[in-house]
């Protein structure tokens, strides 16, 4: 039976750039870039999960502004659904806590990065539906 799970991700924009994090070497999809986020814990809302995950991963406090869209990716053994939320960074600057690296990238920059599979779909959607966030 195929394992299925849902995760949350943050779309944090700074001018024309988006915040991406590079996965740790021991993670599935090691070294690939992604919109930061992670699993929803028991008893937690998706909005609470995305705020907690960004704090843990990047030591950044955010305001969750709203749900944008869900994206799915599937392999022979795994099905993942990513709930993408528009977020705004509050005080402070990000620092790599539970990721190798991070950065703010334009959509053009993102095309040159090695992205996790579902994050490629998010970038494609952003390029097609680009609007001022």
Question: Can you offer a commentary on this structure?
Answer:
The protein is of the alpha+beta class. It has a single domain, classed as Nucleoside Triphosphate Pyrophosphohydrolase. It is built from three helices and seven strands; from the N terminus they run ββββαβββαα. Strands 1, 2, 3, 4, 5, 6 and 7 form a seven-stranded mixed sheet that branches. A hairpin with a 2-residue loop joins strand 1 (3-14) and strand 2. The longest helix has 13 residues, at 46-58. The radius of gyration is 14 Å and the shape is globular. It starts with a strand and ends in a 5-residue tail after the last helix. The mean pLDDT is 91.
What brief labels describe this structure?
133 residues, alpha+beta, Nucleoside Triphosphate Pyrophosphohydrolase, 7-stranded mixed β-sheet, 3 helices, 7 strands, 23% helix
In short:
The protein is globular, with a radius of gyration of 14 Å. By secondary structure, the chain is an alpha+beta fold.
Detail the topology: elements first, then pairings.
Blueprint: E1 3-14, E2 17-22, E3 33-34, E4 37-39, H1 46-58, E5 62-74, E6 78-89, E7 101-105, H2 107-112, H3 117-128
Parallel strand pairs: 1-6
Antiparallel strand pairs: 1-2, 1-4, 2-3, 2-7, 5-6
């Amino acid at each position: 039976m195929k394992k299925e799970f849902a995760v949350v991700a943050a779309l944090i924009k700074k001018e024309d750039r988006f915040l991406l994090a590079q996965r740790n070497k021991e993670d599935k999809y090691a070294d690939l870039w992604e919109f930061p986020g992670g699993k929803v814990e028991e008893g937690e809302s998706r909005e609470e999960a995305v705020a907690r995950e960004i704090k843990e991963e990047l030591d950044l406090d955010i305001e969750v502004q709203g749900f944008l869209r869900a994206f799915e990716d599937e392999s022979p053994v795994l099905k993942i659904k990513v709930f993408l939320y528009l977020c705004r960074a509050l005080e402070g600057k990000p620092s790599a806590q539970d990721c190798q690296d991070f950065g703010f990238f334009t959509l053009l920059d993102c095309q040159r990065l090695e992205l996790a599979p579902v994050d490629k779909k998010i970038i494609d959607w952003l390029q097609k539906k680009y609007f001022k966030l």
